Amino acid sequence: MGAVGEQDTGKQDTRTHGTGSRGVGGNADGIGDGAVLDATGRSRDEWFALLDEAGATGWKHQAIASWLVTEHGVDSWWAQGVTVGYEQARGIRLPGQRQDGTFEVSVTRTIAGDVEPALRALAAVVTAQTGVEPLALNLGAKYPTARFPLDGGEFLLASASARGAGKTSIGLVRGRMAHGDDLAGAKQTLRSWLGDVTVDAVG
Questions:
Q1: Which of 153, 157, 150 is nearest to 105 (CA)?
Q2: Are strands 167-177 and 103-112 parallel, antiparallel or unpaired?
Q3: Based on the domain organization, do 43 and 116 belong to the same domain?
Q4: How distant, in Å, are the alpha carbons of 22, 34, 36, 68 from that of 138?
């Protein structure tokens, strides 16, 4: 069983979610209740009721996730999902909000081409749009990424992963945003940048 900690943006699945309040999907949008029930033995509502009974509205994120793992044997990955969903449902955490109180949005798109040229093309688009060069272009990593520092401590993370049949999934995450007032607008901007990416854009 893995360690209990909030899923890291650089490694997590960056699939887009459905649209919820503030223009950004909540935790329940990405994974259905049936999947939660199959994986954990209880539905979201059942877990939320148990957490309410235990007084979890006053707990920190780590305490909730650890309780699910240690007291009920929930896999740590699923414990994170249930915890975030509970925090959002009880108003402890807003959609798009991280454990540290900052906000992030993410988008993905599948294009034709291999991983390395796809990530290079995506990084070139981000640099053209922001004027910022990546701190590192990790083409040889298991999860190839390029990270771009932005003003105010924010960052952009570009990623690429093979999808088979000559296709690659490319993604962008904008993280450590201080406010969640325009998450939908930020997400739309990232989508437009992904739309500009073609593998033949880079040699």
A1: 157
A2: antiparallel
A3: no
A4: 33, 36, 33, 35
Does 6 map to a domain? no
Cβ atoms of 96 and 24 within 8 Å: the answer is: yes
pLDDT of residue 31: 67
Q: Cα 140–142–144 angle (5° rounding)?
A: 60
Burial of 154 (0-12, 13-18, 19+ CB in 10 A): middle
Alpha-carbon distance 170 to 55, whole Å? Answer: 41
Between CA 32 and CA 84 the distance in angstroms is 14
pLDDT at 16 over 60: no
Instruction: Compute CA distances 4 → 17, 70, 78, 176, whole Å.
Output: 23, 10, 10, 21
Bridge partners of 125?
none
Report the side by side order of strands in the sheet with 103-112: 103-112, 167-177, 155-164, 145-149, 136-138
If asked whether residues 57 and 79 sit together in one domain, one would say yes
3-state secondary structure of 151: helix
Tell me the whole-structure pTM to 2 decimals.
0.60
Domain boundary among 89, 116, 140: 89
What mean pLDDT, rounded, does the chain reach?
Answer: 83
> What is the percent of the chain with per-residue pLDDT over 90, rounded to a whole number?
57
Q: How far apart are CA 171 and CA 6, in angstroms?
A: 20
